[in-house]
Amino acid sequence: MLLIDLKLVIFALLALALGLGAALWAARRRAGERRLPLDVELLPFGVAELGAGGDMLRANAEARRLLADGKPPRALGQAALSARASSSGMLAAPQPLRWWAYPLAHGGALLILADNAEQQRQIARQQAFVGLLAHELRTPLTAVIAHLELARAPASPPALREASLATAHGESQRMARLVRDMLELHRLELSADLPLEPANLALLAESAISQLFPRAEAAQVELALEVGGTLPAVLAHPDRLRQVFLNLLDNAIKYARPGDSVTVSLQPQAGGVRCRVADTGPGIPAADLPHVCEPLYRARADVEGSGLGLALVREILLRHHATLEIASATGAGSGTTCSWVLPMAGEAAP
Fold it and tell me: What is the pLDDT along the chain (350 residues), one digit of tens a residue?
């Protein structure tokens, strides 16, 4: 997967502009100036001038931070000074750096430095996510293959064939949900914002409850909606916010026991509406609570699901300028409460 870091593109464009102005830098050097101009000092990436011997003649604040010992690593200095034209590369140690170098007339080089640590962390997170996804797909895929083999076997009785085909179909549906949720989460993580508009929060919650009512009834779980007075319109992406209610209700129903209840509560407050989805289920163990919003994390392996529902909820609410809070304790009727606050339409986002 090709990732384009916009900040690094900007770095490259600015580095090119600085490379075209290398003659000015040389003139400043001849004039005896030891520090860079104020506007260069304030740039969010490193700018430094290397002498012909590899020593750093001057540098802005960010370059001095990235090169804590005050001089570039030998490998970086050699690479920057050996090139006859502009060059670029990456440095892994002493800390991840991306660099661009432009030769100067006096034999030195103009060096642009960008902190690459965050990009490395993003790559590591994506690699870990792909690894977890592959692990999660392996089990249902193995089950599909095994049950299709049973169904194809001439000696398999009709009842076993039917059961194997049903299992294979169920596991394939599970894989489809996993991939769908993964792609949805990836799209949300890549999007900076969602288009928000005034929305009727009560109607969205009521629609989600109506959709899941048959499932709740089959599981002997009671669903309820409580609205505290007249609610103001909130800023929301209606489809995404409805998905938040659906995911939280679905999660509560899956873990609930017969006789449990799930209540959606909407209460107006200064500047917005506080939303709560509370259940009387078994609760979440304290060891699992900090991790339930992590992608592919499931507190109980025996409960069907992709492990992405709460991760999607968190990402959607972040793009509504809201933070998901989860409170839970184990014990009889302790239950779990998920809450967040949505700003009313017309209120400035924090």
Answer: 444 444 444 444 444 444 444 444 444 555 554 445 545 666 777 888 777 777 777 778 887 777 766 666 666 776 667 766 677 777 766 667 887 877 777 777 777 788 777 677 777 767 777 777 777 678 788 888 988 998 898 888 989 989 989 988 888 887 887 777 777 777 777 666 788 899 999 999 999 999 999 999 999 999 999 998 889 999 999 999 999 999 999 999 988 999 999 999 999 998 899 999 999 988 888 888 888 888 777 766 656 666 788 988 998 999 899 999 999 876 655 789 999 999 988 754 45
Distance from C-alpha of 152 to C-alpha of 150, rounded to nearest angstrom: 5
Residue 97, C-beta contacts closer than 8 angstroms, at least 6 positions apart: 66, 76, 90, 91, 113, 114, 115, 116
Non-local CB neighbours of 332 within 8 Å, separated by 6+ positions: none
> Domains along the chain?
6-115 (3.30.450.20), 120-190 (1.10.287.130), 197-343 (3.30.565.10)
pTM (2 d.p.): 0.60
- What are the helix (H) ranges across 35-116? 38-41, 61-66, 74-82
